[in-house]
Amino acid sequence: MVLKISPDISIPDDEIELSAIRAQGAGGQNVNKVSSAIHLRFDINKSSLPEFYKQGLLNLRDQRINKNGVVVIKAQQFRTREKNREDALERLKKLIKKAGIVQKKRKPTRASKSSQKKRLDSKVKRGRTKALRGRVSDE
Asked: Where are the domains of the chain?
């Protein structure tokens, strides 16, 4: 079984470490007996991902990626282990896709002369309005 990211990129299962742990929070007696939460670990540096995706993941400012380059995802939203496993793998897939998106370079633009003039005129008008609120002299 492999995790398909895109038609040409996939991750073999042996690179993704999945372990079942007990879920936190309310759930009655069942939560203390059943290990339904999934703890996913994925080492970016040791993976077979293309270098572009590896760099993108390592440059992401995401709290799920630790300083050693390991993605740690804890899935405990659902009651069954299978649904939590699917959820964890889906979240890893989304994270990798997010790393593959290249942001467009921003072109700096300049404000037009008319917009600058309008802005300054409105500031002058506002200043005059505020000046009229001052004390009235008896002269």
From this structure: 2-100
List strands edge to edge, sheet with 16-21.
16-21, 37-43, 70-75
Count of C-beta atoms within a 10 Å radius of residue 67? 5
Give φ, ψ of 100 to 5 degrees. Answer: -85, -10
- CATH for 2-100? 3.30.160.20
Stated pTM of the model: 0.66
Query: Residues 37-85: pLDDT tens digits?
Result: 888 888 888 878 888 878 887 888 877 888 887 888 888 888 888 888 8
- 98: tokens are 């997010």
Compute the distance between CA of residue 24 and CA of residue 36 in angstroms, rounded to an integer: 10
Report the distance separating Cα 20 and Cα 15, nearest Å: 17
With bands split at pLDDT 50, 70 and 90, how would you rate the model's confidence at 30?
low
DSSP secondary structure string for all residues of 81-124 = HHHHHHHHHHHHHHHHHHHHPPPPPPPP----HHHHHHHHHHHH
